[in-house]
Amino acid sequence: MVMRREAFLRHNLWLMAFTAFALRVAVMWLRHSYRFPAAQNHYLFGTEMGRVARSLVSGRGFASPLHGQTGPTAMVGPIYPLLIAVTFKLLGLYSVASAIALLNLNALFSALTAPVVFFIGRMAFDARIGAWAGWAWVFFPFAIYWPVVWVWDTSLSALLFALVFAATLRLTRSMTAIEAVLYGVLWGLAILTNTTFLPLLPLLLGWVCHQRSRLGTRWVRPAAAAALAFALTLTPWLVRNYFAFGHVLLRSNLGLELVLGNSPGASSPHEWQRLHPSVNPAEMAQYRALGELRYMAAKQRQALAFITQHRDIFVRATAMRALYFWFDVESPGRIVHFPEVLFGIPAIFAFAGLWLAVVRRQSAAFPFAAVFLIFPLVYYVTHPDARFRHLIEPEVLVLAAYGGLAAWQRLRASFLPPTPRPPAGVGIADSGCTL
């Protein structure tokens, strides 16, 4: 019986992944989203990451993320630009074949996320929640959209962090030395792909250690092994940046991200785009003249000065950015409008699910709360974009399934009469039932 159930589960997970992949590829072909405009020498094909990949293919190293030759960069992490560079090398620089290959790769990353979503739901709650969340990921319009229109790390980052989150839940039950090392490496790959996850590392690893300590199982050496594996995974990138810039750093772009959302010209979540060096010639000239690190430092000072002098504007803008991150709207009244309502519904049910998990003292409530409370902070103080939530969409959909199912059960109990039960003392034979 157990073997049949496991075989059925494997079949459904394969079906989930295949359906997700087929849907995403079909949307890509129907939208012809592999046809990127040639404007600005194909800049919209991967933007900064595409430019770095071009530099790698041309033999100039990890450099020049915007326009022209501007020297070494740490504006983006190394993983996804390397994938683009390999594709450019094999299929041609900014070619249609490269676009098709990269968008199909994104679709594959997104499809493989569906089974991971199932396992997160099953480990955190139960198999029914996992199934609902997994199939929600398959058909959620924005989970279909982002992988096939944007050559960026979005889908890969969502997959890697979903694997990290699933591994976090798994390690509370088993944490051998090998499992701990793999956990550290997985964290390293996730951070090298997208550094926004970094603040969650001590929280999630600390939670694993706390849970294992409560159960009386060993955690000190495995946690040390995970930390060492994580550090070693980052080391080549940190060493490269030290020799390229004279500083140990993961990313260089914080100053730019801050000023894009905190300056006189950034009055709404969309305004930041016209201040970016890629579209603003004056900013591009300044970036080229100062060099990357000095430019980023100047932008950070500019942003902090603006925040200090306009605290009221910063507070209002931060609240607006938080609303935009979760609901893709600039005012609460827009939440019920289409298509924003499709984007916002999972967030509403997810917050309900998080509250319910905390009230019911679910063991997985803390890691979910950490993701929801800590991960978006950097976007609240810099600038948001609808695709940024996609990085934690797997966790959002798991909690949405949990909250949505609880709401459905309560609604059904309110409108449907309870199933009648035989009076006390009446057996099966007395109630008229026959066997």
SSE order and pairing:
Layout: H1 2-31, H2 39-42, H3 47-57, H4 79-91, H5 96-124, H6 127-139, H7 141-145, H8 154-171, H9 177-193, H10 200-215, H11 220-245, H12 254-261, H13 281-290, H14 292-309, H15 311-327, H16 340-359, H17 365-374, H18 377-381, H19 393-415
Helix pairs in contact: 1-5, 1-6, 3-4, 4-5, 5-6, 5-8, 5-19, 6-19, 8-9, 9-11, 10-17, 12-14, 13-14, 16-19
Notes on the protein architecture:
The chain is mainly alpha-helical and 435 residues long. It is 67% helix and 0% strand. The chain is built from 19 helices and no strands. The chain has helices at residues 2-31, 39-42, 47-57, 79-91, 96-124, 127-139, 141-145, 154-171, 177-193, 200-215, 220-245, 254-261, 281-290, 292-309, 311-327, 340-359, 365-374, 377-381, 393-415. Helix 1 runs parallel beside helix 6. It is globular and about 70 Å long.
